[in-house]
Amino acid sequence: MEVMEAKKTRIYSFGDKTADGNRTMKNLLGGKGANLAEMSAIGIPVPPGFTISTEVCTEYNELGDAAVKDLLKEDLKQAVAKVEKIMGASFGNDKDPLLLSVRSGARVSMPGMMDTVLNLGLNDVSVVGLAQKTGNERFAWDSYRRFIQMYGSVVMGLKPESKEDMDPFEEVIDHLKDKRNISLDTDFTIQDLKDLVYDFKDIIHKRTGLDFPTNPWEQLWGSIVAVFNSWNGNRALYYRKMHGYPADWGTAVNVQAMVFGNMGDNSGTGVCFTRDAGTGENQFNGEYLINAQGEDVVAGVRTPQQITKVGSKRWAELARVDEKARVEFYPSLEELMPEMYAELNAYQQQLEDHYRDMQDMEFTIQAGKMWILQTRNGKRTGAAMVKIAMDLLKEGMISEEEAMLLIEPYKLDELLHPVFDPKAIKKANIIAQGLPASPGAATGQIVFFADEADKFRNTILVRVETSPEDLEGMNKARGILTARGGMTSHAAVVARGIGKCCVSGAGALKINYKERKFEVDGKEFHEGEWLSINGTTGNIIEGKVATKDPELSGEFGELMTLSDKFSKMVVRTNADTPKEAAIARSFGAEGIGLTRTEHMFFESDRIRAMREMILARHEKGRRKALRMLLPMQREDFEGIFEAMDGLPVTIRLLDPPLHEFVPHQLATQKELAEEMHISLTAVKTKVHELEEFNPMLGHRGCRLGNTYPEITEMQTRAIIEAALNVKERGIKVFPEIMIPLVGTLEEYEAQEEVIRSTAKEIFEERGDTVEFMVGTMIEVPRAAIIADKIAEKADFFSFGTNDLTQMTYGYSRDDAAKFMPIYLKKGILHADPFQVVDREGVGALVKMGTEKGRSAKPNLKVGVCGEHGGDPSSVEFFCGIGLNYVSCSPFRVPIARISAAQANIKFGC
Ligand code: PEP
Ligand code: MG
User: Fold this and answer.
1) Cβ distance 629 to 613 under 8 Å?
2) Which of 576, 596, 741, 838 gets mutated to test ligand 1 (max ligand atoms within 8 A of its CB)?
């Protein structure tokens, strides 16, 4: 019997309170498409439309334009017909044209990364029909010129010719404004708009040699293809790389009936948040413009008005201008359109309740009818993220598990960002005020172009407004300052997303890109001069202002306490000083997983003794120098043990190659020769002897301790004596001595023997003992392979995933930067394996090493102390394979704790 293959669904319709899809279908419909379907199904007034699935994007990338056009043809016709039916207008009709919008929508939100075309379906004939149908000629021509402008840049690729140039369409607009001596788009006459249409088409023809397409179906297909292509455009590529999103996700395309906010004074458009995206406070807020289209709010050409409830705290804060002027120029939506406000307020509550998270919504009021264009979980600052999660929990809206999962671990970094030093800020000269778009404090040298954001060490990127092309530069700058744009402008949204300090809409700034300067109140500020901005208050400050560490909110503490309820895996820290240890402990570290003892040798009084030890020709000379180092090391360890009273401390024996400690410049070599009363030639010869072709694979790690056991002896003595000394002072101490870079059992055994016999000797000398452990790092692949043998001897394992990654891939840790960006761009690697553990290779070794180790010693304590110990995805993996702890730098401890709790909730580990 012949089996009929079910026809593949490529297009999913929605509208009029029904939908083919729902919110669980994000991978297929993209975040936006899935939400449009869901909203429509729960009765929210969404303009009808359809979503072309992400699978079609992948088909397009594989099969190309013509083949996919063929595959979609029939479905596309039917989907458009459904929209026509709901809207009572027809696509391509001259007299009553249905207009469409085309938007991208990946499975995760990528703000401003992809392109959008609006008002699609207009041409020279139907624009007249639209004018007649609406009785609004101005609106029809304004829609048409906006359509040509968007289609021209998004689909036909018209861009500024160089970074100093303006957008070609904006240039025409500015030229006309100058000629007519007007400043706002709303000042254009109908004839002006017609002239713009003519001029726009003219530039398109001149630049591309093509005519603007008049056939609406051709326009629709051109836009769909442009959205597919934007998935592989530079902006999306950069964003994907930054977040580690794979290329084969693809984007969906959302096609919807246009609704218009620019049909007169009973129309408008806006963006709103169910809670405050900056602070997390439970205050419905947003911005809107009367008689405008969506991009007017975001582009910041006109200053948006406030949605916020009359009389609320936020409303009062925003009403800084005098009351009369405020009511006249900036009335809230509630004052201007009370019924619309009430309806919107009801929808925002319905949507937040439904999605159980803060929503970021877009709406349009068309001639007194409210349409909701989109909703999504709102981007928020780290502080808002924590407050919203804890508030929703307290309000009984979500469970403890859900609250934990609302946390993006990396975003906690922001809470630990600097603020201005209160003393320094008192003397600061505030030159202007903008909007507090993304909190934090930043100080840096002025740059005006995103691709020059790394021209100085610390920069403030100053722009009239930002665009998605600027993302890379925004990421590199310390802070972002824009002259235009509201709280929902591109700069503001992106800055909040990446946790970067940003002040937007500082209208007092007159920016001159050509001369690389800006002017405020007659005073000039040039490229390279210092400037400071406060993203929490909106202040712009002349010069350099000192910053200081932030104070953490009560909700942060509550969240961290909650995380302990879930995480089974312990988080330790990598700390080399008592100060670092204390910071980490205040963030909840439950011990030290790695103290790199070599860092202690670089301080001025120690490096001399260290060099003397290295330059000594015989053991006797080395021992003499080591005796000088002993009291210094002992003192360091005492400080660390004190800071970690009651918690385990893992101390690693000397690891780096000795050549790192000797001087390589002639002048310092001379100084050393004089200090040590030896000849310059002797110094040079030793330095030369220590040179290695591959120092990372050379004379380092336990190979040092095994060639010079007296070093291991001295370090063991320092650790054990320090432990006995602090024990006498009532401190609970749990030292764990760790042998680095072990590859064979014999290497381990020889070092263990030195450690244990030295400790025994000290216990006899002192007539006292202290419990201690001896273990090893597993960072050479061979050690993972023979882990069962090593575990018979070792008390614990700590995976050094930095070296393990280096040796598993054969990528030099010090040289990988030369090819890593290219590998990531080409998709040869999906993520930098030095940042995110490579589960398939390095991860498999960690898993195997752990299993083998525990097969010999079931209770073997196993941890990780490479950089991966603070990376959420890696922490999740380590938790899943049953490690006892991860260890990371102090400021990453909260991130690792939350990641461990989330892994427990998701996988029960
Ligand atoms: C490691 O290799 O992962 C490690 C922690 O040691 P280091 O980075 O000091 O080589
Ligand atoms: Mg290492």
Assistant:
1) yes
2) 596
pLDDT digits (tens, 9 = 90+) for 304-350: 788 877 777 767 766 555 666 666 666 789 888 999 999 999 999 99
**Amino acid type, 489:** S
Q: Is 204 in the pocket of ligand 1 (CB under 6 A)?
A: no
Is the minimum distance from the CB of 695 to ligand 1 under 6 angstroms?
A: no
DSSP secondary structure, 411-478, as one string = GHHHHT--EE-HHHHHT--EEEE-EEEE-SEEEEEEE--GGGTTSSSSEEEEESS--GGGHHHHHHSS
Do both 579 and 599 map to the same domain? Answer: yes
Q: Are residues 888 and 836 in the same domain?
A: yes
How far apart CA 248 and CA 231 sit, in angstroms, is 10
Question: Atom of ligand 1 at shortest distance to CA of 594?
Answer: 5
Give the number of domains in the chain: 4
The pLDDT tens digits for 596-607 are 998 788 766 788
Predicted pLDDT of residue 324: 66
| pLDDT at site 326 | 64
Give yes or no: residues 634 and 702 share one domain.
Answer: yes
Q: Which residue ranges of the chain lie beneath pLDDT 70?
A: 1-6, 111-114, 295, 297-301, 303, 314, 317-330, 468-469, 486-490, 493, 496-499, 549, 603-604
CA-to-CA dists, residue 444 to 434, 530, 533, 544, angstroms: 17, 5, 9, 7
Q: Distance between CA 301 and CA 490 in Å, rounded?
A: 12
The CATH number assigned to the domain holding 764 equals 3.20.20.60
Q: Tell the residue nearest (CA) to atom 1 of ligand 1.
A: 800
Contact 56, 33 (CB under 8 A): no
The span from the CA of 652 to the CA of 716, in Å, is: 10
**Which pLDDT value is given to residue 437?**
79
The domain that contains 511 carries what CATH number? 3.50.30.10
- Order of strands, edge to edge, in the sheet holding 517-520? 510-512, 517-520, 523-526
Residue 807 shares a structural domain with residue 760:
yes
Query: Any idea what the CATH number is for the domain that residue 246 is in?
Result: 1.20.80.30
Contact 440, 419 (CB under 8 A): yes
Atom number in ligand 1 closest to CA 865 = 5
Q: Are residues 294 and 236 in the same domain?
A: no
User: Domain ends where: 380, 405, 435?
Assistant: 380
Catalytic residue among 490, 501, 702, 909: 490
594 in contact with ligand 1, CB cutoff 6 A: yes
Q: How far is CA 553 from CA 134, 387, 815, 863, in A?
A: 53, 9, 41, 30
User: Does 424 share its domain with 475?
Assistant: yes
In a domain, 640, yes or no: yes
Side chain identity, residue 526: H
Q: At 244, which amino acid appears?
A: G
- For the record, the structure tokens of 716 come out as 């063991």
The H or E element that residue 346 is part of is helix 338-355
**Domain ranges, residue 282:** 268-380
- Residue 490 among the catalytic residues: yes
d(Cα 493, Cα 473) in Å, to the nearest integer? 15
CB 800 less than 6 A from any atom of ligand 1: yes
Could you tell me which residues come within 8 angstroms of residue 670 by beta carbon, excluding any fewer than 6 positions away? 680
Q: Which of 324, 353, 380 is the last residue of a domain?
A: 380
pLDDT given for residue 1 in this prediction: 46
Name the residue of 653, 779, 808 to mutate for ligand 1: max ligand atoms within 8 A of Cβ.
779
865 lines ligand 1 (CB under 6 A): yes
User: Residue of the nearest CA to atom 3 in ligand 1?
Assistant: 800
3-state helix, strand, coil in the chain (%, to 5): 50, 15, 35
